[in-house]
Records
---
Amino acid sequence: MMFFHFSIGFIDVWVAGQIDRSVQAAVGLISQSLFFFLVIGMAVANGSVAAISQSFGAGLRRRAFRYIGLVLYIGLIFGSAIWVVGRLFKWQFLGILQVPDEILPVTGYFLDVFLMLLPAYYLMVVTNAVFRAQKLVVVPLASTAIAAVVNAFTDFGFGLGWFGLPNFGYKGVAWATFASVTAATLFNVYMLYHHGLLKAETFPPLRWVRKGLPYLLKVALPTGGMQLLWHLGYMVLFAITASLPNDNVNALAGMTAGMRVESLLFLPAFAFNMTGSILVGNSLGAGRKDEALRIALRLTGIACGSMTLVAVCMYPFIDPLAAFLAPEPAVARQAVNYLLYNILSIPFTVASMTLGGIMTGAGATIYTFAVYSSATWLVRLPIAYTLGHFVWKDAEGVYLAMLISQIFQSSAMMYILLKRDWYRFSMMKRNNKGCRTEEECCPPPLEGAKTNVRPAV
């Protein structure tokens, strides 16, 4: 599924690069903005996994169905609301992003189409979470594959005029995203109906919503807060790059291309993140703190070592990869510079991603929130603005700031792992009070549970 997500972004950027550097720069800006618009949906999706999986695990099917209906309501309402608000304040938003005049018309068109897409995108995000909560992971995999195939066909067809289709240029790229997400959403809705999850009892009355919503928010808000600050930080970073004194459009396009190449390295890093969460969570649940620490250190070492080796192997291919994604030489040079700094940061980036998963498994997400937010807002952005606008006055200052922030972030996470009592956030301590047997101390958790807080609904 992560590979399909990667292919969607990679093809978008490649096709945009074949059209024009301004299109590639616009794709980078608006794609990052889209993640910001989706923060509420992703937070609700995380909360729904906990609520729905625990309800099914406890045999409370009616409550599970009502939570499914509740997240569908939320997806439609917030997706539509952000679309309307975004349309009303479109030009103010583009002004905040410091979009250069050269790419303003293209960026505005992409924003129009992507805002129109939000209701369907919100539904896709929450329905994927509904299926994951029931371990029906094949459905999200299939819907992501459908999105990838439709996106590739329409990108090549309507963006470049392949397959005998009309060439709409950048407009074809924008509508390719709309078509792919809509197709995936329609598939998910059909699968909800097919699995008997879309019926009258799925949609709860308002009286139940008032009781069920607080638990969903309790789980979703911390995650949403971290994602909000993270994606907002990236938007500010793009705004800093867009307003650079020199070569800003090439820098935006090169940064967009470089990020797509870099994301290939993040696929296994995300796997280490999820593995750490599962293994450390299981060890702490069984009361084995020393084992949890050993697993954390070993997994972090393996992740950093293996991904550093992959980065070293990728180094000789930086130039051809950049030229492949960015045909214009000036943009390719920016992509190469971006990749050089970010390949240097791979050990630190992978370490912080793996340690973030470990803290999630322990329930210590407050540490991840504090460190990630500090690294972005107190280190990366001030240094990027200072170096990019006053010292070097080009994008290289932004790239160096990203490297420095990753070193800070991974060092802080490692300090927490070794020196702080992050174990206390697990259920182990609370469950062990006053119990006489191992069964009492370590009761089996509800299937798929993500939190120790039980809903009172």
Note: The CA atoms of residues 316 and 446 lie 49 Å apart.
---
Amino acid sequence: MEISWNDRDPIYRQLHDRLVEMILEGTYRNGDSLPSVRQISADHRINPITVSKAFQLLVEEGVVEKKRGLGMYVMMGATEKLARDEKKFFLTEEWPRLVEKIKRLGLSIEELLEEGSVK
């Protein structure tokens, strides 16, 4: 698990976001176990309490569940739930800002499609 830490966001939030990305990308699928708190802590040289806080946030969101004595597991349906949440966030938060910027820059649909198809 590669994580490029930044100074803007708390480490637990960045770890949470990276785990969400990995679930959405299929690295961890419904029913899969996640690495242990100790493993992540050792691999990334971060406090185990920080890792636990990221896991707790995932539990509260209904994405992972703790199985006593076994560890953390991706809940059934988590991938679909996260995809729905990401789409909703994009359409309600990010898309309106993009539309506003497109208008401000005077970009046409043709310019956007042409630029998007080049890459």
Note: The chain has a mean pLDDT of 92.
---
Amino acid sequence: MEYADIIKFHGHSCPGLAIGFRLASAAMDALGAIRSDDEELFAVVESDACGVDALQCVSGCTFGKGNLVFRDYGKHAYSLFSRVRQQGVRVVFHGKGVPAELRSDRPAFASRIMAEQEDAILSVTRIPYEELQTARVRNSVVCVGCGESVMDTRVRETTNGLVCIPCAKELAVN
């Protein structure tokens, strides 16, 4: 997928999107992988920044398919695993090739990230393969509090019946 397509998906170009594109592309290249149609690949992302949109577009790993895991470490770092090859890589943005004074100019910063040599902005490390459980279909139940459907693994049991997490919190406050 081209960067222009990812900008359309995300809504704008920014340094975070450029970082995500470069990280995801480097990880895919390192694994010799092609975009995942199903769950051939899975990813672990360490931030919820703009770059995750690029990773989803480039790799095909998405929250909806269950092959994208978010770990809130606040880092521009992704681990990508290939079930086919039983291999994993971790890519990390270090940005050493980008002058500090350029970082306040967001368009220039994004352009520099896209133009810079890979080793000047990121590192790629082979990591041990670890299996992520494949996505499972869950049953839904109706919350007695709000009447909305909720996955059976996300309900709380009360004296009135099964409730969703927001309704359980509301009951606890009242």
Note: The mean pLDDT is 93.
---
Amino acid sequence: IDKTVPGASLGIDSDGFFGLETQPRRVAVVGAGYIAVELAGVFHTLGSETHLLLRHERVLRSFDPTLQDTLTDWMVHTGVNVHKKTEVKRVEGAQGGPLTLHLSTGATLEVDVLLWAIGRHANTENVGLAQVGVATDDKGVILVDEYQNTNIPNVYAIGDVQGKFQLTPVAIAAGRRLSNRLFGPEKFKNDKLSYENIPTVVFSHPPIGTVGLTEPEAREKYGDDNIKIYKSSFRALYFGMVDEEHKEPSVHKLICTGPEERVVGLHIIGLGSDEITQGFGVAIKMGATKQDFDDTVAIHPTSGEELVTLR
């Protein structure tokens, strides 16, 4: 990594975060994904001067644009130093000591900890895959079919190494279905994990929940004329007694398609979104329509009721 960015090894990754024994006074987090967002939020909430360096304009670029915009703007509002269109070109300093970051903008940044959260790749080199002929792509991801089979009989791959949804619960679910199919009774002979409509949460500040297609994905798949968007922006009642500047935003968005308005995307940000998403994930997995949502009596006063009262 030092060949690409001189001095980059003076930084740490997300594993190194858990090895920190003292709270750094100044931190730079590089990345726009959920790890970067979550750890930047932790540092900032604890009181560290926090800088988040983005190559582009927004965080969470694979998420729905509404979530990207809302969270990025709120992080800026709350005092996270978000550096847009900024890359680290060189790092100077000593391991464990203050570091000077030379940025693509020409500026320098003095920090105590540099945390790289720019993504991970499958650790499949030098484990003998080539010797037995297991196929990988140019990034080292193991190629599998819908049943986790590689191209070699009796060799399987699950989890991050096969490149789909790099989330622990997904790997566990895929592993259970694989073991059911290999070692379970006859009724499990075709058991496999569906990778559609997997609920995902980002433990940002405030948290994010998402299930299904983003708005751009839905428009590309079904066409603009076959998509209807329902969206609401509000402040959770929890913040009713605090000053306006401290009221976290909440945005709830449903993406529906077809004359029956089947819900193909749910994207929410705000207090409680992590808990709300799990239950609605079941509904969307079962093929719920907008009418199903409308027919559900709201629980008041909650943030979740917003999803069944959208008009």
Note: The first helix runs from residue 14 to 17.
